[in-house]
Amino acid sequence: MNKIFLIIKREYLTRVKKKSFVIMTLLGPLLMAALMIVPVWIGMKDKDFQIIEVIDETGLFIDQFEDTKTLRFEQQFVDIEMAKDSFYESKYTSILHITGIGKESTAKMYYKKQPGINTVSKIETTIEDGIRNIELKEQFNISREQLEKIQPNVTVETIFRNADGAEETKSSTISTVLGFGAAIIIYMFIFLYGVQVMRGVIEEKTSRIVEIIISSVKPFQLMLGKIVGIAMVGLTQFLLWIILTGIIISIAQVLLNQNIEVADTAAIEEVMKAQGAGNVNTTNMAGQIQSIIDEIPIVKLLVSFLFYFLGGYLLYGALFAAVGSAVDSEADTQQFMMPITIPLIFAFVVAQTVIQNPDGAMAFWLSLFPLTSPIIMMVRIPFGVETWELLLSMVLLILGFVGTTWMAGKIYRTGILMYGKKVSYKELWKWLFFKG
After folding, report:
1. pTM to 2 decimals?
2. Which residues are paired to 110 by β-bridges?
3. pLDDT of residue 394
4. Does residue 268 contact residue 261 with C-beta atoms inside 8 Å?
5. What pLDDT is stored for residue 275 in this prediction?
6. Fewest Cβ atoms nearer than 10 Å: which of 45, 158, 217, 265?
7. Sheet strands (E) in 57-128
8. What is the pLDDT confidence band of residue 263, given thresholds at 50, 70 and 90?
9. Separation of alpha carbons 289 and 368, rounded Å
10. Residue 115: which residues within 8 A CB-CB, separation 6 or more?
């Protein structure tokens, strides 16, 4: 046990002292924060300012277009050909030409400055609202204001009721985001640090350092120490990324807070209004989101995430170590990588289907199978999973890890000292049952 601890310590300290680790630890949060902050900042700075000349041949949309901070509409009673001839001498960035009010009518927009999608969407919504108002008045003798007074606002609340009568509210949207987010993190962690285990084994094998180490410890102890050591490096980096990203985003929010909040709220309201969602009560929405968050089993989710996060890595890390011990260079790993990566990629792809039916047969069996359970079970947990299913999945993952480590240890024990020989699957099969 003491030797395994020494190997873990060596792997950990060797890697965290590397320049590449320090650079990636500092660069990672900057990139992640930039992905969240830069689009908002660009959106605030890069406004689509438009001065639009409205030529309405129907005469029904006078004063219908409302000016905003980035849009200004000016109604002009001139011929469209004259407007187009003098377009480039005028102050206008676009000409909006409305010729009809039918349900399938098309308005034309001539521009010298490309209008953004929000600008076009706002114009379409305004025209559609105008046509709808006219139709309502002509066909039903009712105004838009009268219709909105009876506008229903129905919300379907999904409530889980167990056999004992206990009820629990669940939001499919929040569950989807949480489940899929956790699955992505586990998927990335397994690939990123599993490949590091494989590269570490190949480096030691080719530099012959392993011959000196093997003289003091058993191959299995070396493999286990390497896998756990790199896992601790990964957890350290992951933790630092979360802390540093949080600090960077907090600083950015302090600097941009007012503008970001105002811009976001305005943008959300504008988009929802354009989609016909009516008036947006942001206070009520925040309350609904808070109540949904309160219903999320945070502790269960975090404990499960940590378990599958480590369990999945340890299982796949052993397989990556076995592949590293069987080859002499990274170029030779391709043929052995495919059987390992297929279940992982398959689980990630199928996760999108599992979200649609988290209690289906496919979701159930894949969340028990150790090679896919770290991703599939994390997708299912936010939707609610029976305790016995969760425990069974965890036990099977532990057994899977033990079995995989045993199998990888057999390959590792022979392969780590094998040089210059092209290894096949047949050869690996022999190593599994080799007694020496």
Report:
1. 0.66
2. 95
3. 93
4. no
5. 44
6. 45
7. 71-75, 94-98, 108-111
8. very low
9. 32
10. 48, 50, 93, 94, 109
